[in-house]
């Protein structure tokens, strides 16, 4: 590896991967990442369940069946492909193109949004907490988009105008979808719609764009360390049709085969807590490709910052089950707040 102008090792793996004949630097080399599940005649490759939004909003006749199915998917898997979600296809395509454009910008442009010491929002790589910490083979851009007063003035407002406008439109559409989906996901586990809406209305929302460069020795690195999302739910878009996301199901790492036009929806820790453990915040990771770059866009939906997060009051009342999790204040709790702000990539379920 030879840089004319060496970059800080943790500034951009995208730049590093552009060099010919690279030797993977030590801080990217992971010891024995767990292998991907290999199917055989007795155990075929499982696939992520599909939820059809039309069934949930129009399937009045069989609504009980649809809710039961949604509940079992969120319980067994904690992840599904959402089809017929109603978000305009051309807007989604535009969003994908703008994200690709962002990562195509010269490094100097992207470094205008560079992560600063101790901050979580901006452009960069895994934050180094400790000496010897391994770094994921990916560059990321993370920022809070809602509530509006929490937006950083040097991030979204400074974006290239097309990216900024497209992201704003995309956010509005996903907020509409999120509101409907939260109501139904709550209903499927006996949480009052009003309680759900009250907690998530004008909630904390954030976005992460991730660029996974190709890696000549993909088995030596990890694109995204195994984690569960600290969010309520996550909407995930695979931007350039290159696979890499995997979920841990029954102890095995299963690749997620994104359907065209679907969002992959993750149940996050907060929904697991609110459902008193009925729903599962699934562990997931991303692997990288030997020859192709991969790009993804994740939108995280959380309760509002002043909300208390714990097992839902209406659910506990109706089921009379004892709460299995503590109730924490969304913003003030020392464990929850930094984890939510970073949507950190260390797997842990809080306060179980
Ligand atoms: O890149 C992906 O597909 C996964 C992204 C993800 O899990 C995250 O940003 O939390
Ligand atoms: Fe995630």
TrEMBL record:
Superkingdom in the source lineage: Eukaryota
Keywords: Dioxygenase, Iron, Metal-binding, Oxidoreductase
Domain Fe2OG dioxygenase: residue ranges: 203-303
A GO term, aspect molecular function: dioxygenase activity
UniProt family annotation: Belongs to the iron/ascorbate-dependent oxidoreductase family.
Name this protein carries in UniProt: Oxoglutarate/iron-dependent dioxygenase
Organism: Artemisia annua (Sweet wormwood)
